[in-house]
Each structure stands twice: as structure tokens, then as C-alpha cells.
DNA sequence: GTCTATAAGAAGATAGAC
DNA sequence: GTCTATCTTCTTATAGAC
């Protein structure tokens, strides 16, 4: 693996776990296995390194949602349920990219806030559109309520995912997975025709 | 106001907005209007100051939930809806205590993680019990589904609140409030008898 | 590209005068 | 209790040899 890739990989994990201020160039260098000044041969400064990670995380997150929604199922209900479960499994899997995304969408470092939120906003919108398309299919098929707007139901879906994401830090994986089942039951009752 | 109170007040806001690492003793001192070393006459160190704020925030959060649930209404549905709306309004109100609570429950500084989560876990459980009691009342009255467990429905409620909390950073207050209405509609459809 | 050495500044915290 | 002065450590970042 090229050094630059390794820097991106290790710093993703550190940023996700320790935050922006909590991650020093020294820690990154140590994990990569080089000395601190060598980092500056690959990135102009800490900010440039961080935004390189942001770029990659956005792409990964969108690809993940797309894949989760493209799984083969008989009904739209199953498709949504499977996607929901995949999301939850991913939370539990302690995936650095998802954690990175969730951490900085909520708590961007003050000096990078404007640039970060502009990016995340667009990314969230793209992802919501993907889900709304599946929900609309369910409405066309007649399995999902037609009085509610598809994008409203998509919003609620991501709202629950984000709520469960919050819980991951507090509760055990098993608890979150059990809670996710309950949450899904309530959600499906809420949107079904 | 006593200096110690002012320190607690100003540092709550700074911690909530900038995080633990992002908040320096120098910044706190400046906002309070004293010099940095004077802080150490009131608190042994930064950690002690932080945990003093944690204590107060927990109490405030639990009192807030209790009050939101004790509002006078005709039906349990209205009572839950009103509490939900109060919660959302509070998110939008940019309240430092709620933001503090939500920030550190999700992203505790690594070196304080164990002590913080132990506290928050107990606090969350107490709050969930308060809501479950109201939901059980709804079940007894017949307005809320009896096949689902009250505490599961309480869990989903807080999951949605936490999801909406996440959105506050990204979207405008108006958008979040509009989303909250939609989310409530789906939730109520999900739990009603 | 990677290293050693080092600068320049900010962080948490303490000593001791008033 | 608050201050000035100071210490130590850690931070981001650069200079320049190899």
C-alpha cells in the first residue's frame, strides 16, 4: 500500500474515534509508522488531510446506502427492512467510515464548520432521494401509505437510523440490535398502507 | 452571581459548542472575565470543572423531560405530542444544557469515557421509565397498542428525538420542526391501538 | 520521501505576591 | 480570590541533510 493511502486509512480511524482536536499529527504518524514531518510530504497541513478523508467518506457512505437498497427481495417491505438491518449491522460493526461521517456531520470543528456542512448537506439529500425512490415504488405497489409523502417517510427513516447511531455509543451491540427490531416494527406500522 | 456559578455557566456553553478538547481554560477564563490561574481557586483542574457541569446537566435534563410530560392535556395522545413538540422546540432553542448532554453522551473524550457513560446510562434509563409510565396509561385507556411493550415504544420515541437532535446541526430550525411533525405522524401511527 | 532538529505557539497547571 | 510570572508538555509546522 502506498504511504498516502495508509495515512488516509489510519487517520480516518483516529479522527472517527478521537475527533479532530483529539487526533494529533504525531498520533497519525505513529500509527502509519513514519515520523511526523513525513506527513507534510503528502499533505500541506492537517486540514488538507482531514478534507481528503471527508471526500472519501462521503463517497463510501453514499455507495453503502445505494448497495443496501439494491439487495434482492420479494417485496418492498423486505427490501426496506433488509436495508434497515444492514444499516444497523454496520453501526454495530464499528465501521470507521460510518462513525467518521456521523461524528463530523453533528460536531464539526468550529473553524471547518461552514465548509463541512455544505458538503454533508448535499450528500444527505442525495441519499434521501435514493430511499424515497424505493418508498415510492412501495406506494405504487400499494404496500405503503399514499397519503404521506415518500420523502417525509424517507426522512423519518434516516431520523431513526441517526437515533440508533446515537445509542451505539451508550448501549451494547446486542441491545441496539434488539432496539432496532422494535423501532422497525413501529416504523413499518407507521408507513404501511 | 458568584464567580463559581459564572464559571459553570460559561463553561457549559463552551463545552457544548466546542467540545472538551476545543474548550481551553484560557477561553473559559476570558468569558468569565478573570485570568486563567484564578479558575484553579475554584476547581482542582479541568476535569473536575467538566464533571461539575455534567452533574448539573443531568439534573436539568431529567427535570426537563419530567416537566414536558406533566403538561395538562385531555388525551394521552395530546400529552405525548405536546411533550414531543416541547422536546423539539428545546432543540431548536439552542439550549446549551441539551446540547451539552447530547454531545458528550455520543462523543465522550476518550480519557473520561468510562465515567461519563456510566452516568449517562443511568440518567437515560430514568428518563425512559418516566415516558413508559405515560405510554402504559395510554395502553390502559385503550388508545395505545397493547401488543407492543411500553418501554419499547418509549425507546423508539427517544430514538426519534435523538435522530432529530442530529439534524439540528445540519438543517434550519424550520426544517427540523417541519420534519418533526412528519416524524410524529409516523410514530403515532406506529403505536396507536 | 523520509529523516533529525527545531521553531513558535498554545495547552494545563503551579508558585508565590498581594 | 485574583493576579503575574513561569514551568512543562504538547501542538502544528518548517529547515535542511540524506
From TrEMBL, chains A, B:
Record Gene3D superfamilies: Homeodomain-like (1.10.10.60), Tetracycline Repressor, domain 2 (1.10.357.10)
Q: Which organism is it from?
A: Shouchella xiaoxiensis
Which keywords belong to this entry? Answer: DNA-binding, Transcription, Transcription regulation
Q: What is this protein called?
A: AcrR family transcriptional regulator
Q: Which residues bind DNA?
A: 24-43
HTH tetR-type domain location is 1-61
Give the lineage.
Bacteria, Bacillati, Bacillota, Bacilli, Bacillales
Among Pfam families, the record links this protein to: TetR_N (PF00440)
Annotated signal sequence is: none
Superkingdom to which the source organism belongs: Bacteria
